[in-house]
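Hey, sorry to bother you again with one of my protein questions. I've been puzzling over a protein and I'd love to understand its fold better. Take your time with it, there's no hurry, and the full record follows here:
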Amino acid sequence: MTTLLLATTNAGKLREIRDVLDGLAIDVRALADGPPIAEPEETGQTFEDNAREKALYYAAATGSLVVAEDSGLEIDALDRAPGVFSARFGGNEAPTYPEKFALIDRMLNERGAPGSTARFVCALALARPGEVLFVARGTVEGRITSPPRGSGGFGYDPIFFYPPFDCTLAELPAERKSAVSHRGQAFRALREYLDGLSAHDPRLSAMP
């Protein structure tokens, strides 16, 4: 059976990804299932750049078939910040997500733009050593809300209001969130790609 390594240590992302890929005839593993590997620097200017870099890095380090993703929040009134810097947004000033929420709220109010439109973006790349096989992107449109609402999800979900459901993503059950989320879209595209390959397709081999 083909083994697919999920190149993330984020527990929330792992749950969402495993749920979408559940039932594939593929052995899905996480980085934590193997020996520790130093994280690569994320130097890309786009989500796709970072996803490709990470997928190729972990494929080379493990000799495995790897899927990596990069995702984040784009806020229109903040010139699409924090974008690819979402996880690091605020630096030492705002190391926790509640502190990041407060920082975003303050910045939006200073610009006179509370409730700015925003989107979540997820880009993923599937790679084996030396070769990217597949890239996909998912987005979900919404707006920023304050104060944060909901205890589900993770990351920026409590301040991301999704108008069609009249709630934040953090207020949704996991299955309903996955049906509309940026990550759910991208990984359903990956699932469709993998479903279209036969068990003996050379692309499912880790080595080119």
Notes: Residues 122 and 183 are 5 Å apart (CA to CA). The longest strand covers residues 131-144. The chain has a mean pLDDT of 93. DSSP finds five helices and eight strands in the chain.
